[in-house]
Amino acid sequence: MSSMNSPTPSVNPPSVSHDTLAAAAERRTSLLATTPQKTAAQLAAEHDKRQKFRRMVDPGITRPNSQDQAQRSLKVNATPLLTLLTIAENLLREPDNPKYQQFKPTNTVIKRDLVDPKGALEYAIELGFKAEVQNFQPYYKFHHRHMEDLQIGTKVLKEFVSLEVERQERIAKARAGEKAAREAAAERVKLAFMDDRKNKELRDEMDREQREGRAIVAGRRAALATSTPVPEPAMPGSGHSLGSPTTDQNELPGYERAGSYDNDG
């Protein structure tokens, strides 16, 4: 009982010293001071550059090319990534890696996905890749002074890929729904056909039974009609009626005629 009545000790959060808070505020202030703030003109120029990249994707890449060719130029290894986006992201992730600083236009994949489709190579050039020749071989090499263009163009590519993925998912769902609806309709038609066939079989069976019944009745009637008629037996005393008023006197029995003579005498 005493332990239950004892007051619960209060737990106070650890206190933060004023020096710690001041140091954190100073770090935030220094970080903001070192981060360059863009002017209105710079923001407007960035907006114009972003709009230019968007127009280069659509209609620049998507409309002039066939759907299959456009999809190939926007995908790598069946993943929803643009070939351009793969190149740009690799370069942003490892800007000092020489492997990602250039690409060869005669490469099979690059030629198929960047050189042949209309607008794709122009987008890479706008990102900062310039044509050069090394050891008599053509290359497109990135120049680091275009790093800001690379960042803006990469953001636009990500936006487009995200929208394209959503569109493809909607199309896939719509097609799946249409397929399910077609299959359901086909199943209903199949069931209706089976029901109609069963009903027809039942009607045919009933008609057959009725025809057989009528044939049996007709056969019996024909047999009765063709059989020899049996004469009906005559009733006893037929042809004579007692006390008939038309009886002739001459037809009376003899004893009745004799009696009449006695009455006259």
UniProtKB/TrEMBL annotation:
Q: Please list the residue ranges that the record marks as compositionally biased, kind Polar residues.
A: 31-40, 241-250
Domain PUB stretches:
83-149
- This protein's source sits in the domain of life called Eukaryota
Question: Gene3D superfamilies from the xrefs?
Answer: 1.20.58.2190
UniProt feature, compositional bias: Low complexity: 1-17
Spans annotated as Disordered: 1-50, 220-265
This protein's name: PUB domain-containing protein
Q: Print the organism lineage.
A: Eukaryota, Fungi, Dikarya, Basidiomycota, Agaricomycotina
